[in-house]
User: What shape does this take?
Amino acid sequence: MTDMDRDELFRAVSSAIAAAPNAASAMTQTVRLLKDGVPAYTWVGIYVLDGNDLVLGPFLGKPSPHTRIPLGRGICGAAATEKATIVVDDVNADPRYLACSVDTQSEIVVPIMQDGEVYGEIDIDSDRAAAFGPGDRALLEPIAALLAERLAEGG
Ligand code: SME
Assistant: This one.
C-alpha cells in the first residue's frame, strides 16, 4: 500500500470516527474501513476492556473462538498489559499466541488508550508472514488514539 493510500485511508477513518453517533458505531466503521482498505488485513477486530478481560466487539473475518481474553493471555493480553503496540511477524513462533485461524501468519495489536488508561485494542491478523511494518503502526496508532477519545467519552 502506498503512503498516499494510507493517508487517504487515515482521513476516511478519522472522518468516520468524528461523524459517528457513538463509540460503538465509530468502532464498527473503523473495522469496516480498515478491512476494506488493506488487502493484507485478513481479520480486523476491536476488543474492549471489561474489568480484567478483553471482550470482542466489532470484527470482520472468520469468527474467532477468543471472544473474551483475560489480560494475562495471548498477544492481545500482552499488548493491553504492556500498553504498547505488539507486532508478531510469525505467530507460530510466539508462545503467547492464541490461534484464531490456522491461516494466520502475522499479527499486530494496537492498544486503544488515553492518558495511560487502556480502553481496548485494535487486533489485525494477516495470512501473510511479516505483513506489518512501520507504515501499519503509523496508520493504526493515531486511529487508536481517536477511538480512545470516543470511548473515554463513554458513549
Ligand atoms: N491472536 C490473538 C487472539 C485473538 S484472535 O487472533 C482474533 C492473541 O494471541 O491474543
In short: The pocket of methionine sulfoxide is lined by residues 43, 45, 64, 66, 69, 74-76, 97-98, 100, 107, 123, 125 (CB under 6 Å).
